Amino acid sequence: MSTGDYKVADISLADYGRKEIEIAEIEMPGLMNCVEENKDRQPLAGARVSGSLHMTIQTAVLIETLKKIGGDIRWCSCNIFSTQDHAAAAIARDESAAVFAWKGETLEEYWECTLSAVTWPEDDGKGHGPDIIVDDGGDMTLLIHEGKKAEDAFLKDGTLPDPTSTDNEEFKIVLTIIKRLLEAGETDKWNKIAA
């Protein structure tokens, strides 16, 4: 596993990923036109963008489009099996985005990657979260909404999420992460992101 402000299977796959991205750019003229029309205007300048989409070569082209028009990007996959490791490696190595994705993640790793993709290391005055999300399956959105709901309950009367309250294995993981953050003193992370 290769790590930095990213977590990918094998950073040495980046050259292969870069070649595939260059081919995909030719096949994706709409995004290339978006870059051309907006590179000077920079409509995403200063915007933090979190994404949860299949981390494929085509998604890599989207990530780099968002970056080229000003976005500060953090990304994870929306599926534990869909990551193309060479695509993730190229995006990580070339610093197009902080990417947290590899093929074959466990469910726990998947949700930790989702948390990493919505958490910047520095507070921009609005917290450590994104301004915009690109969310394919709704998992990133779910984490934000459940986090806000849990923070509101905790601030009201000290209630913590109870992972044993559900039989759904993934939702147990979500509640465990949110509970861990609340117990560590993060009581306004999700409210800031929601705002």
Automatic annotation (TrEMBL):
Q: Which GO terms describe its biological process?
A: S-adenosylmethionine cycle
| Entries under PROSITE patterns matching the protein | ADOHCYASE_1 (PS00738)
> Which molecular function GO terms apply here?
adenosylhomocysteinase activity
Spell out the InterPro entries in the cross-references: Adenosylhomocyst_ase-like_sf, Adenosylhomocysteinase-like, S-Ado-L-homoCys_hydrolase_CS
Show the Pfam families listed in the entry.
AdoHcyase
Q: Name one GO cellular component term.
A: cytosol
**PANTHER family recorded:** ADENOSYLHOMOCYSTEINASE
Protein name (database record): S-adenosyl-L-homocysteine hydrolase NAD binding domain-containing protein
State the organism named in the record: Thalassiosira oceanica (Marine diatom)
